[in-house]
């Protein structure tokens, strides 16, 4: 009789299968992190079939316990967000579904455990002035002084890259991972389009406006082509001409936001801004869903509600009947 498959063996098998199915590297990394948390919680390597629904419930409850984040930088002690716990629940469900399909276990126990309901985020889009300030700080370094000399600043070497990043994020609503994975061969600047690989390895074509096309062309022509021979064909590069990661993109935007005095400057806020502005300007909800790469209309409906509230508030301010007090 064969010994039972342990949790670690099942995880290894599932990750091999995930790579064979060409799941994105970001999905695999998120799932791996979720599985590692479960292994640490259990403290041993039990047979997968011996793990009970109560074990999983206790694990998910433990994730809500406030704890200090990893790393040396001082950060507040807080629990994982409900959205993160939901993502972990999704990863575990994928593992157990695979194990049932492979006849390792008889039942998919994760589906019997209630899915955490994530908090609905407060969505505050960038204003036009916010974006103008972000673009302005791309061009020059912080002012500095040297003994006996005037206050001065320098041109930033990354100015063309950072302007292109901001405009592509704002003009297309792409996810951070989609921007970081964008390839040179998927930039059709002649026709002002890019092709991105979304969740589930689904490609979608996105149009670019003239200003974004010009910014991307300038970056690729002036800066990016010079490094093409020493790197792969990803468009946006970070330190050492290595492909930019989501973490590096997040840090870059936070730095630019701090200089421009634009708080909460993160990649997903550009996505929110694109979606809400698209609807404010008369865009179609189905077309927006296609642009964003959403499988359902749930998030689009939230954007539509915000956009409609903005329209109604604008009418109150602009209506001649109200303003003229007729």
Structural class, judged by helices and strands? mainly alpha
How would a crystallographer describe the biggest sheet?
3 strands, antiparallel
Which architecture of the largest domain per CATH?
A: Orthogonal Bundle
The CATH topology assignment of the largest domain is hpI Integrase, Chain A
- The total count of helices amounts to 13
Structure description:
This protein has 326 residues and is mainly alpha-helical. The protein has two domains: 7-68 and 79-112, Tyrosine recombinase, N-terminal domain (DNA polymerase, domain 1, Orthogonal Bundle), CATH 1.10.150.130; 128-143 and 153-318, Orthogonal Bundle (hpI Integrase, Chain A), CATH 1.10.443.10. It is 53% helix and 4% strand. The chain is built from 13 helices and three strands. The chain has a three-stranded antiparallel beta sheet with strand order 1-2-3, with no helix packed on it. Helix 1 (7-20) runs antiparallel to helix 2 (25-42) and helix 5 (128-139) crosses helix 9 (246-260). It starts with 6 loop residues before the first helix and ends with a helix. The mean pLDDT is 85.
SSE blueprint:
Blueprint: H1 7-20, H2 25-42, H3 53-63, H4 82-101, H5 128-139, H6 159-172, H7 176-180, E1 187-188, E2 193-197, E3 203-207, H8 210-227, H9 246-260, H10 267-280, H11 285-292, H12 298-318, H13 320-323
Antiparallel strand pairs: 1-2, 2-3
Helix pairs in contact: 1-2, 2-4, 5-6, 5-9, 6-8, 6-10, 10-12
């Amino acid at each position: 009789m064969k010994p039972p498959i342990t949790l670690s063996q099942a995880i290894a098998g599932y990750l091999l299968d995930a790579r064979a199915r060409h799941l994105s590297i970001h999905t695999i990394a998120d799932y791996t992190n979720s599985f590692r948390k479960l292994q640490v919680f259990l403290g041993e390597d039990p047979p997968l079939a011996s793990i009970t629904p109560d074990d999983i419930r206790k694990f998910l409850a433990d994730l809500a316990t406030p704890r200090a984040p990893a790393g040396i930088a001082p950060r507040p002690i807080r629990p994982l967000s409900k959205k993160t716990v939901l993502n972990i629940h999704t990863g575990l469900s994928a593992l157990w579904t695979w194990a049932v399909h492979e006849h390792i276990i008889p039942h998919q126990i994760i589906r019997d455990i209630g899915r955490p309901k994530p908090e609905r985020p407060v969505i505050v889009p960038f204003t036009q002035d916010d974006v103008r300030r972000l673009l302005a700080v791309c061009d020059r370094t912080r002012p500095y002084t040297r003994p006996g000399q005037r206050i001065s600043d320098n041109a930033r070497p990354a100015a063309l890259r950072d302007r292109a990043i901001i405009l592509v994020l704002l003009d297309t609503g792409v996810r951070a991972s989609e921007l970081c994975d964008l390839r040179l061969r998927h930039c059709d600047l002649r026709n002002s389009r890019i092709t991105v690989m979304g969740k589930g390895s689904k490609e979608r074509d996105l149009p670019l406006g003239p200003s974004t096309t010009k910014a991307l062309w300038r970056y690729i022509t002036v800066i990016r082509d010079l490094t093409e021979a020493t790197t792969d064909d990803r468009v946006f590069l970070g330190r050492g001409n290595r492909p930019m990661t989501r973490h590096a993109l997040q840090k870059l935007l936070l730095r630019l936001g701090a200089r421009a005095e634009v708080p909460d400057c993160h990649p997903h806020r550009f996505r929110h801004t694109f979606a809400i502005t698209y609807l404010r300007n008369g865009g179609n909800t189905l077309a927006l869903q296609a642009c964003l790469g959403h499988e359902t209309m749930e998030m689009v409906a939230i954007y539509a509600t915000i956009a409609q509230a903005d329209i109604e508030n604008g009418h109150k301010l602009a209506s001649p009947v109200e303003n003229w007090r007729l």
